[in-house]
Amino acid sequence: MALIVHIIFFKTKMFWKVTTARTLQSLVKNTSSFIVFGSFAVGGFFFARFVTAYLLHDVHIGLFLFHRFISMMLFVFFLAINLGNMVVSFSTMFRSPEVNFLLTSPVSHLNIFIIKFLDNFFYSSGTLFLAGLSVLLGYGSYFGLPWYFYLFAMFGVLVPFMFLAGCVAVIVLLVLLKLAEKVSFKGLLALLVVFYSIQIVLYFTVTSPVHLVQEVMKYYPNVNVYFGYLDPPLTKVLPNYWAAQILLFFVAGKFTVVAGYWVMLLLTSIAAFIFMIAVGDALYYSGWLTSLTLRFFSSRSGSAKSPVFSFEKRSRFEPQAEVLLKKEFWQFVREPSQWIHFAIMLVLVIVFLSSISTLDLKLESPPLRAAIFLVLLTFNAFLMTSIALRFAFPMMSLEGTAFWTLRSAPVHVRSVYWIKFFILLLPLIVLSLCTAVVSGIPYRMFPMLMRLSISVMVLAMVCLASLNFGLGTYFSNYTEKNPIRIASSQGATLTFLLSLIYLVFIISILFVPLELFFRAVYLSERFHSGTLLAATAALVAVTVAASFAAHVMGVRSLRRDF
Question: What residues does each domain of the chain span?
Fold first, then answer.
């Protein structure tokens, strides 16, 4: 245990030294981080308070329905943490050069396993803690909750909740690597994707948010009654349900019930951690050996398929563009953590789209219809933001120290930059168009909304791709080979927060025109599109300005020596 504490302290000290280096780039990063983190925390506070007040005071959905929406968001949050930790753990626990070095030292593999797990958890949780704290402050301030609520909710509820998701992810990963000794890893990956897809579809089929709204609203205005009979028995054993119940009964002042759900969450997290240690003790070393075999087969399979887009074959592209395009393709394919993570995120997008395409939004309240339209739109954009952060931000850094070969070659460095960007932008635009069209199906009776959804998603994707790629180039780290750690760095966190601020801007600028539109539809009046056109023009201006600034920073940063 002393060794574990010593190594974690050493890594924290090294991280502090790296992030506080006295260079212009680090000064800009730290100053910008302070401003953006502070702005994000303040903005998250006011946004959470506004949403809480709006849904409870203006729309009158009631405490029960409000906290059921929180439970659904926590379910998605749990799965996102779970899948993210699974991919990150595969990269850092099994494919990291640091692990290869530690396994040759006189340290037990169990200690290495625990160190890497805690390293992953604390390294990647800083932004989530900040976001959770700001949201909880906004939530608690609306209800006037005491100061100890925030400490309890953060460290007694949110931390065990996230810790449980991380433990489950590592347990599943260890079992998969054990099965990979006898079964095809690609088959196991497909089985994993199907398993998580079934979970998401089953959960939202059983809970059915639209059905829940219709059932609760039958009792309007008496919607603050506890409608516990509407909760399916299956959901009552899930940690997101316990966390939502803790918040609901804390607000209601029923602290005995709060204690019961909190004990269940805490004991489950502790049990999961103990079970993970036992599984890690039994399977970690053999899993690491299996990962070496997977690396061997992945490289062999890549060379066997090289005729598909090989360097030996000529194409219709200009020679310099052709070689850069093929380099980007094979640089992506040769690394399993890249396409595995992309496949998992793509499946999550498909599952989400398949679930919302069947929604039947028979809601009378114009503000609520506007809010749901914006929620669907911004959630689509948030999914695209996650993909852009994961793959766009590390894109330039993955060139590594061999980037000097491109800079010394007879290729203009700006050509490398723009080819990389457009390779990234094209699939993101296609995905954003698909999400915009599918999420517009519940509003198919309003063609204007479909056009608005497509336009906003395309604009958002251009801006988000530009932010992540441009700032990823500016904050590039050519010595880090792990793309997931690059996407979890301080510069990546700063970029992610800027992306969230941009999404909040979309919500704030489109809400009033959309509410006016649905009010006109509800009252059978003519809608004057002037406010919507003005909001769209403002969105275009902000998108162009943010994209231009990000690309200027990215292109200029290529001039510096590394």
Answer: 25-298, 319-562
